[in-house]
Design brief:
The complex is a heterotrimer of chains A (234), B (398) and C (349). Chain A is an alpha/beta fold and 234 residues long. Chain A has helices at residues 42-50, 72-75, 95-102, 111-120, 122-126, 137-149, 167-182, 194-200, 218-223, 225-231, and strands at residues 4-13, 16-26, 31-35, 57-62, 65-66, 80-83, 155-159, 186-190, 203-208, 211-217. The longest helix of chain C has 32 residues, at 49-80. Chain C is an all-alpha fold and 349 residues long. The chains are: A alpha/beta (234), B mainly alpha (398), C mainly alpha (349). The B-C interface holds B 85, 87, 89, 149-150, 153, 155-157, 159-161, 163-164, 167-168, 171, 174-175, 305-306, 310, 313, 317, 358-359, 362, 365-366, 368-369, 371-373, 375-376, 379-380, 383 and C 83, 85, 142, 145-146, 151, 153-155, 157-159, 161-163, 165-166, 168-170, 172-173, 176-177, 281-282, 284-285, 288-289, 292, 321, 323-324, 326-327, 330, 333-334, 337-338, 341.
């Protein structure tokens, strides 16, 4: 049984339909990447899963539970954490406070959890008392991911984690994603940088026009010239 | 008829009834609408004069009068809020400026012993309609001055700025004796066509007119004034209805719907907002003048935040913002509720007294509470009001 | 192509100039300029410096009560993104609740050196959470509905306006329209801070109480989980939800604190001046002026704004009719907005 399944999702914003029938699944410990042209609905799928959007049709299941349209505050308790693409940190809070907010639903001490995040992102350890809003793009992305990891999620959802970052930082982010995955966390990511994300992913989906167009192991998709021509810009 | 005033009163009462019916009635055929309105107004007027005792009838007349004055003010607010989205919580300022300007323009500066009691900046002794126009002008001028620095602010900042203007104007009229006798009232405002209600009649009107109104005594002046107010209201209403269907009105609506695209299509958004603000203020000033010449003596207390600002907001929200018909209807409705509540509370005196001996004399505040609850109800459950905005068809095509 | 560099240089210069003119320093310079003008005009009109100093001190003391109100407004604005026009009337509510509570508590002898007894302090401690609960209760029946509907902020402000008048009407109904005092004709001890500079000890207490409360709020916002959650929500409420923050609990605490501060501010202000049903509405203007000057939503800004406006209010009475005090604060707010619309602590554009 898959960790996360989305079956036949149809949804949109207001009256505008964006998803016209999307089905994906993520298994435990996998890295799954969703790529596709702009406006295909990649981010929309993420928001749907996390409960920021309600499905008009279709279902979302996580760890055997139907979470279709469930409020984000409840979804997060099930072990599913989400890093939005933009505005993904609390700018006036320090790095440390951002992490604390990530574990808000927990009552006990957070020291060990914070240490784990600092181990993963040593740069953050040095800057733990700095305001997140004053950090560079790459550091901010680290804070955003760190916040999401505080709850030890089973599945981490990343919306365009490399967006707007310099190539060196893009490498670093994807390395970190791999590192995170190695600790047993499944990763579902949406990416513009299709090549890099498919290299990393176990499986990929190509989304276009609001539906799945192609799916398969990351490496297969990478080598498929059709896919490359139509959707990956060659 | 044993009552000599019957014809005069019926005729006068028919005027506001007819005009209000024309505003309120909806219909595709204008001729039919006017015909029905004339007939209904005359019938209603005659019926009322015949059936109601004089006291109740004059109460009804003053109700119609004040309702119409507030309708003018509400129309002014509709231009600012309904059509442009400007959150003006300082209506009282424009209301007051209009009233006091009209007062200063139409009264004469007291001389001799009277000068010790009443101080005012100037007194031109001009006729009523000059006062009316001056009131609109002064109010528009205030809007121009105030709008410059404040209209570009975001919505809630503008609201605070308008609260500030309201307070500032109130403070000025309360403290500056030399301006308008503050805090004492400025009295003796002339009442237009009051000569008709006197025994001599008006020298500038033809004989048959004077003869027709001869039976009226000064006590029945409100009948004359309500007709005047209704005519002014009607002119303002018609003017606004035309304006909103004009190219100018279309730009206004475009600005309200989507300011960014309006700006991108080259419209000077700031200028349009200012124009709407000023036009609305001019109308509020006119309302102020109408009010002043009815109550004849004004002071700063008439323009407090409740009567001068909040009540008008409730009127517009109930009637439906963005909708001139709704503005007039809302004004009349809320004024009816306000006066009706007065009766209800009087009737409930014993109950109130049983709760607390001081409560009956605080009756006005019970009304205050009811109106606040009405406002909350509208905002929470019916924000579009009784008459939601209708689709406006423009006259000119681009 | 020789034209282009000149044009872009000119534009760059204008942009840099406008940037500098709307910077934080320019705003402070404006305030400094106003201070200089006050001193100059004071000298010209023969107002003794001691009087100006006394008024400034009085302004700082008054600023304490204003700071509590401003803090409440800015917290609600930051967390809930709405302008609470009913806040002034919440302060009035607190003041009148204080009257009721003090009537129920046996009066004690005036505390050492002050003009009031322990009953005032006890009432203060009771009224604060009470007003906070009233504020939360009113939120549940009004603003919460609008939040669920994702209503525009201006509709929330309109509802707040309705609440303001509604609350005030109840106070009129229960207490009547007359003004009243906590202590009629009691002792009003004075202390001389400097030669010629006299203040009432009660006013020093007001400032001290305000400082204590402000410090407690600071501790709450910086050191407690719920305080950080409030700041997080103010930063980004969507991300707060995503992180699992219980937003309705944060809303509860925000109103509890905002209302509590309003209650305290109202009681302290009434202690110094008087109780009137309109007192809160009249305070709205200087309070919002303070909040806007300091940048709406910013706690430190609200404090700066409150003390500044307190000084402006009091010092203006040396030049114009004291009734115009709030209007003077309003004028300074408008000037500040012209120079820097985002306020002192706002982000540079």
């Amino acid at each position: 049984m898959s960790l996360l399944t989305v079956e036949g999702a149809v949804s949109g914003y207001g009256e505008m339909q964006v998803l016209k029938g999307v089905s994906i699944h993520v298994d435990d410990g996998e890295i799954v990447s969703i790529v596709g042209p702009n406006g295909a609905g990649k981010s929309t799928v993420m928001k749907l899963v996390f409960g920021l959007l309600k499905p008009w049709e279709g279902r979302v299941t996580f760890a055997g539970q139907d979470i279709s349209g469930m409020a984000p505050e409840r979804v997060v308790r099930l072990g599913l954490c989400y890093v939005p693409q933009v505005e993904n940190v609390f700018p006036t809070l320090t790095v440390e406070e951002n992490l604390e907010m990530g574990a808000y639903i927990l009552d006990g001490p957070l020291k060990s959890r914070k240490e784990r995040v600092y181990d993963l992102f040593p740069r953050l350890a040095e800057r733990r008392r700095q305001r997140a809003g004053k950090m560079s793009g790459g550091e901010r992305q680290m804070v955003a991911m760190g916040r999401a990891l505080m709850l030890d999620p089973r599945l981490l959802m990343l919306d365009e984690p490399s967006a707007g970052l310099a190539p060196l930082l893009v490498d670093m982010i994807f390395e970190k994603v791999a590192e995170i995955n190695q600790t047993g966390v499944a990763v579902l990511m949406v990416e513009q940088n299709a090549k890099r994300s498919l290299e990393l992913a176990d499986r990929g989906y190509v989304l276009a026009g609001g539906t799945n167009q192609v799916e398969g192991p990351g490496s297969t998709l990478l080598r498929d010239p059709e896919v490359a021509r139509l959707y990956l810009g060659g | 008829m044993s009552d000599p005033t019957f014809f005069a009163r019926s005729a006068l009462l028919a005027v506001p009834l007819y005009l209000l019916l024309v505003v309120v009635l909806r219909g595709t055929s204008a001729i039919l609408k006017h015909a029905i309105a004339v007939v209904a107004a005359l019938a209603l007027a005659v019926a009322l004069v015949l059936m109601l005792p004089p006291g109740s009838l004059s109460y009804f007349t003053t109700f119609l009068l004040m309702g119409s004055v507030y309708a003018v003010l509400t129309l002014g607010l509709n231009v600012q809020w309904g059509y442009t989205g400007l959150f003006n919580i300082g209506i009282a300022a424009f209301f007051a400026i209009g009233a006091f300007t009209s007062a200063l323009v139409t009264t004469v500066e007291p001389t001799g012993s009277m000068a010790a009691f009443t101080q005012q900046l100037f007194g031109l002794g001009a006729p009523f309609w000059v006062g009316l126009l001056a009131a609109g002008l002064a109010s528009g001028l205030l809007a121009l001055i105030v709008g410059g620095p404040t209209l570009r602010l975001r919505g809630d900042y503008l609201a605070i700025a308008t609260i500030g203007i309201g307070e500032l104007v109130r403070l000025v009229f309360q403290n500056e004796r030399w301006l308008a006798n503050g805090p004492q009232p400025l009295r003796g405002l002339p009442q237009p066509l009051s000569c008709l209600a006197s025994s001599e009649g008006c020298s500038y009107l033809p004989g048959f007119v004077n003869a027709f109104f001869e039976p009226l005594s000064p006590r029945e002046y409100p009948y004359i004034y309500v007709a005047i107010v209704a005519i002014v209201l009607f002119l303002v209403y018609v003017g606004l209805e035309r304006a909103i269907r004009s190219p100018w009105g279309r730009v206004l609506r475009a600005v309200r719907e989507d300011e960014d695209s309006a700006a991108m299509s080259g419209k000077n958004v700031a200028a349009f907002r200012m124009q709407a603000f000023v036009v609305g203020a001019v109308i509020m000033g006119i309302g102020g003048s109408l009010y002043a010449h009815y109550v004849v003596a004004i002071d700063y207390g008439h323009f407090d935040p409740l009567y001068g600002t909040f009540l008008i907001w409730v009127m517009l929200m109930l009637g439906g913002s963005g909708n001139n018909r709704g503005a007039v209807l809302g004004a009349l409705l809320v004024w009816a509720i306000w006066t009706g509540a007065s009766f209800a509370i009087d009737a409930l005196r014993p109950t109130l007294a049983s709760i607390s001996p001081e409560l009956p004399q605080r009756g006005p505040y019970v009304r205050f509470l009811l109106i606040s609850l009405l406002m909350l109800f509208i905002v929470l459950y019916r924000p579009r009001g009784v008459l939601p905005e209708e689709k406006v068809v423009s006259l000119a095509r681009d | 192509m020789t034209e282009a560099p000149t044009i872009s240089r000119g534009r760059a210069f204008r942009r840099a100039a406008s940037h500098a003119l709307s910077s934080r320093w320019s705003l402070l310079a404006l305030l400094g300029l106003l201070a200089v003008l006050v001193i100059v005009f004071g000298a010209l009109e023969g107002i003794p410096a001691s009087r100006l100093l006394g008024l400034t001190v009085r302004g700082i003391l008054l600023g304490g009560a204003l700071a509590l109100g401003a803090l409440g407004i800015t917290l609600v604005f930051g967390v809930l993104k709405m302008a609470n026009f009913a806040h002034g009337d919440y302060m009035t509510t607190g003041a009148y609740l204080g009257l009721v509570v003090m009537a129920l508590i046996p009066a004690s002898a005036p505390i050492l050196g002050l003009g009031f007894g322990y009953e005032f302090v006890i009432a203060l401690l009771i009224v604060m959470p009470l007003t906070g609960l009233v504020a939360y209760g009113l939120d549940r029946v009004t603003f919460r509905r609008l939040r669920k509907r994702r209503a525009a902020p201006i509709m929330m402000a309109m509802a707040a306006l309705g609440l303001a008048f509604g609350v005030r009407s109840i106070i009129y109904m229960v207490f009547g329209a007359d003004f009243t005092f906590y202590y009629q004709g009691g002792p009003r001890p004075i202390v001389e801070l400097l030669p010629g500079l006299r203040v009432r000890t009660d006013q020093l207490f007001i400032l001290a109480a305000a400082v204590v409360l402000i410090f407690l709020v600071y501790l709450l916002l910086e050191r407690t989980k719920i305080g950080k959650a409030m700041r997080a929500m103010a930063d980004n409420s969507d991300l707060a939800r995503i992180s699992g923050i219980a937003t309705e609990r944060v809303v509860f605490w925000t109103w509890l604190i905002s209302g509590g501060l309003a209650g305290a501010g109202g009681m302290l202000y009434a202690l110094d001046v008087q109780l009137r049903p309109e007192m809160g509405w009249w305070l709205l203007l200087p309070l919002f002026a303070a909040v806007i000057l300091g940048s709406i939503g910013n706690v430190y800004g609200a404090l700066f704004g409150a003390f500044t406006m307190g000084i402006v209010w009091q010092v203006s009475s040396a030049f114009v009719n004291p009734a115009y005090g709030p209007a003077a604060a309003f004028v300074v707010m408008i000037l500040a907005l012209l120079v820097r619309p985002q306020g002192l602590m706002g982000r540079d554009k």
